[in-house]
């Protein structure tokens, strides 16, 4: 993750909330950047729920989707439990073919209306994570659908954030990096196929290091504020 802007400095992530909804397209997306913050929030008694557009059934090379989808759901539920999330929902949209359709926007808006979270955190939707690091089309399309769905809500949540580079807000996660590492490592089959040469725990540790930043001597998770209903 890019370092926070030292000239202006990001603000602390809001604390005055009770419930938060994480919206992402695939299993393991919550573990790439925000799991440490989720672990901190749930430890403080806040409620965090995950909703995923797909089951990631196209994500394991050499494994048929009918087997990969249920396996990735299991790994995601284990990963979520490690950071204190019990409620994980899969919507069944096709992995690798997610687009910002009326159907997807309607589903997102319906879930936001049903859950009524104070905060929504979505997948990063920028074109690149950094120079030479392009984002996935599923991520970009899904993130745009979340923003459009938020705008459709007559009574929207108080804040809409995306996790990722260029943060406007940060959460100190110094004490939760190990939990975040364990959470990502719960995607054991996925990671072992993704990089057979590197132990799963080592892959997870590298990702947590890469997707957090140092701010005032502490490791932080970064979030970009997109919408606010707070006056």
UniProtKB/TrEMBL annotation:
<keyword id="KW-0862">Zinc</keyword>
<dbReference type="InterPro" id="IPR024078">
    <property type="entry name" value="LmbE-like_dom_sf"/>
</dbReference>
<dbReference type="GO" id="GO:0016811">
    <property type="term" value="F:hydrolase activity, acting on carbon-nitrogen (but not peptide) bonds, in linear amides"/>
</dbReference>
<dbReference type="InterPro" id="IPR003737">
    <property type="entry name" value="GlcNAc_PI_deacetylase-related"/>
</dbReference>
<protein>
    <submittedName>
        <fullName>GlcNAc-PI de-N-acetylase</fullName>
    </submittedName>
</protein>
<dbReference type="GO" id="GO:0016137">
    <property type="term" value="P:glycoside metabolic process"/>
</dbReference>
<dbReference type="Pfam" id="PF02585">
    <property type="entry name" value="PIG-L"/>
</dbReference>
